[in-house]
């Protein structure tokens, strides 16, 4: 099952694509059949979500070419990102591989959807790409055992953790450089966990800048896999339905190259994960958009 959010004629909505089908069905918030936002029904629990999916699947088809896609979640309760989660990326970044996940937070104001711009701020020319797997929690909990952790995953998606390196390293904490407005590409949709290998392991991940492959890896190479991340995080933090875990990037980032390779206005960055989808964003000057 795939789930996505969209805007049509100024109204937000969401749609579903059932397994084995190419068509999307759903509706917008002004329709009588609309029973709440995708965020709301995910947070309401599995039974409410399934009922909502069944209702949406019965609606008219949605032409994706006629709508604007939004980040699959509008207001994740928590966006927890993982740094240094591939050995090769830790090496290229000059860090010793940590034996505990390197964690930082993003905020919802940093998100942007598929085929929407990633902002290039006039404050810095060091906007970097990071293709990553995104994990959506469907069932909350604390102190989740590793062997039960994947039962708490609703779906997976694709993420571009756009990072303003100059600001990332202005302080020991990475928050500022990871949270410039609309630098986190997220989408194009969610793919439910039952459609993918356990923990979304063994999937090819590739990032392309202007058509040139700059990152190529496999999700099975993560140091801390999805189940481990959920178990470790939930030792201290209660996870809730609708939370988002962004699981780290492999080697090839622009900051580690010589010469450095950063995203510039006019560039197009694509992140593709096998079995999930392709996320595409054009880089645009923030000043030019406002």
UniProtKB/TrEMBL annotation:
InterPro entries: FAH (IPR051121), Fumarylacetoacetase-like_C (IPR011234), Fumarylacetoacetase_C_sf (IPR036663). Pfam families: FAA_hydrolase. Gene3D superfamilies: Fumarylacetoacetase-like, C-terminal domain. Its cofactor is Mg(2+). GO terms for molecular function: hydrolase activity; isomerase activity; metal ion binding. Transmembrane segments: none annotated. Residues 78-283 form the Fumarylacetoacetase-like C-terminal domain. The keyword Transferase does not apply. GO terms for biological process: carboxylic acid metabolic process. Keywords: Hydrolase, Metal-binding. Belongs to the FAH family. This is Fumarylacetoacetate hydrolase.
